[in-house]
């Protein structure tokens, strides 16, 4: 059984920080590309950041320099450190595991940034 469980979301004031975690089970975590996506009300889901099995990263232009994605293969966990948060970062954040045959998604965690 594959599970991706996000945690760490919540409410924060603009300029603050949050760290999201995604704990994976039932997959060979160390070989999968892991990503964070977000979806705001009325908008399409968008890529925030991803990280390869080798540690290379990609970021959306809107978060570059503020967010950092990382992974701990020993803990089967991927993180998203979010600094200098803005109200436009408000969204449900989803963890994704990209496999050869199938992609797996977490249930999402809400991030709300207030002015």
Description of the structure:
This protein is mainly β and 115 residues long. It has no helices and eleven strands. Strands 2, 4, 5, 6, 9, 10 and 11 form a seven-stranded mixed beta sheet that branches. It has a four-stranded antiparallel beta sheet with strand order 1-3-8-7, with no helix packed on it. The model has no long low-confidence stretch (mean pLDDT 95).
Write the layout of secondary structure elements.
Elements: E1 3-7, E2 10-13, E3 18-25, E4 33-39, E5 46-51, E6 57-59, E7 67-72, E8 77-82, E9 91-98, E10 103-105, E11 109-114
Parallel strand pairs: 2-11
Antiparallel strand pairs: 1-3, 3-8, 4-5, 4-9, 5-6, 7-8, 9-10, 9-11
What distinguishing features does this structure have?
4-stranded antiparallel β-sheet; 11 strands; 7-stranded mixed β-sheet; 115 residues; mainly beta; single chain
The whole-number mean of residue pLDDT values reads 95
Structural class of the helix and strand makeup?
Answer: mainly beta
| Poorly predicted residue ranges | none
Tally of contiguous helical segments: 0
Give the CA-CA distance, first to last residue. Answer: 40 Å
Evaluate the radius of gyration. Answer: 13 Å
Quick structural overview:
With about 120 residues, the chain is mostly beta strands. Helices cover about 0% and strands about 55% of the residues.
